[in-house]
Amino acid sequence: xxxxxxxxxxxxxxxxxxxxxxxxxxxxxxxxxxxxxxxxxxxxxxxxxxxxxxxxxxxxxxxxxxxxxxxxxxxxxxxxxxxxxxxxxxxxxxxxxxxxxxxxxxxxxxxxxxxxxxxxxxxxxxxxxxxxxxxxxxxxxxxxxxxxxxxxxxxxxxxxxxxxxxxxxxxxxxxxxxxxxxxxxxxxxxxxxxxxxxxxxxxxxxxxxxxxxxxxxxxxxxxxxxxxxxxxxxxxxxxxxxxxxxxxxxxxxxxxxxxxx
Length: 261
Description:
By secondary structure, this protein is an alpha/beta fold. 41% of the residues lie in helices and 20% in strands. It has helices at residues 16-33, 51-66, 108-116, 128-131, 133-140, 156-168, 186-202, 205-208, 217-230, 243-246, and strands spanning 2-3, 43-46, 72-78, 87-88, 94-95, 102-104, 145-151, 172-177, 182-184, 234-241, 252-260. Strands 1, 2, 3, 4, 5, 6, 7, 8, 9, 10 and 11 form an 11-stranded mixed beta sheet that branches. α2 (51-66) runs parallel beside α5 (133-140) and α6 packs across α9 (217-230). It is globular and about 45 Å long.
């Protein structure tokens, strides 16, 4: 069973050549204004809006992952349209992208389903928070393979246990998908998002609950819990809002990327 593209042509371009132009543009800006950290990280937080808004922020994290040498990743994101309890994992054989298919990590799927009693909610996998990550992974990681986990009403400690299990495998990494605050004016967005950024940087779950309005807060909390257990530190790579692209400062969405090492 193949995981088809559901938001191609809206959140990201349909044609591979157009995607290549996006990545080239992001990296050109990056080369002019950012020094890539000299680290090998296999766990990142990335945003999931349309590429014109959050693509640059995500691109930095994938440039970090590219240096890790890891070729297998579990992509974890919140469900925006389908409500259900817990986490969904479907037994896809591959994931479609404009660059061609990405194979699933076939041996990992039954292990996760059995160990954590995860069911498949098929409708939940027409989800943009995870799908927008697939072209980045296909572009930057040669011979990449992935598994997609989508959560709705889920417990952060439960997802953290899944992350712990994944990271026990030294050849597998984790991509945590979230945007930050939604539809505040720019000043209020900066105030709320700064809570998220500090909470991530300090691995502070209490602060995360004190005003961070990330739509993927559960996944972020789970990653923080796992990082603390595994002795990892967190480093924010980039922060910006939709206003940087649109110029609209009245209803903005915040984006960040970070890595753990």
